[in-house]
Design brief:
This protein is an all-beta fold. The protein has no helices and 9 strands.
Length: about 170
């Protein structure tokens, strides 16, 4: 099991007349770590994640939030002593979106592709802590509005704690 905090923003496009800021969100879910020897593992996951950004324009600040069911498949290298590095592809399925402007319908696409990379530490008890960056590969926007250009991607920094029931040897 794992749970943590997201710091997300939209990256890769200019937003004219809009001040864009990071949005704080949540991530949580489960994973299965399949070991290959003492150092390598493949780790498929299913993680609920809230992502988005804050837009400030014309004196108003509004949150654009998208909830995803993310399915990363991480390739993990475990060092002796409990530290690890990980990287892999991720597919996100949109569950919900929240936009303050009702004129922007279907703000986000139903599918989000990303690449994840991170590091962490897992103790012998199974308790661990990790950090990961999720770099969006596909554009988030799926709308045709005048002021906003929909050619932006998700950028998410994650910090999480986790607990494993098995594979606790270091």
């Amino acid at each position: 099991l794992k749970a943590g905090v997201n710091v997300s923003n939209f990256v890769g496009s200019s937003f004219d007349n809009v001040d864009k800021k990071a949005l704080i969100g949540f991530n949580g879910g489960g994973f299965l770590s399949l070991l290959f020897g003492n150092h390598f593992a493949i780790q498929p996951e299913a993680v609920f994640s809230t992502q988005g950004a804050k837009f400030k324009y014309a004196g108003n600040e509004e949150n654009f939030k998208v909830s995803y069911l993310n399915v990363p498949v991480m390739l993990k290298y475990r060092f002796d002593g409990g530290f690890y590095l990980e990287a892999g592809p991720q597919v996100g399925f949109k569950l919900n979106e929240s936009t303050p402007n009702s004129s922007v319908r279907n703000f986000a696409k139903n599918l989000d592709l990303a690449f994840d990379a991170g590091l962490g530490f897992q103790g012998k008890s199974g308790l661990g802590v990790g950090a990961r960056y999720v770099a969006g590969l596909s554009k988030v926007g799926d709308f045709d509005e005048g002021d906003l250009n929909p050619n932006f991607r998700n950028g998410v920094a994650q910090i999480f704690v986790f607990y494993t029931l098995f594979n606790n040897r270091n």
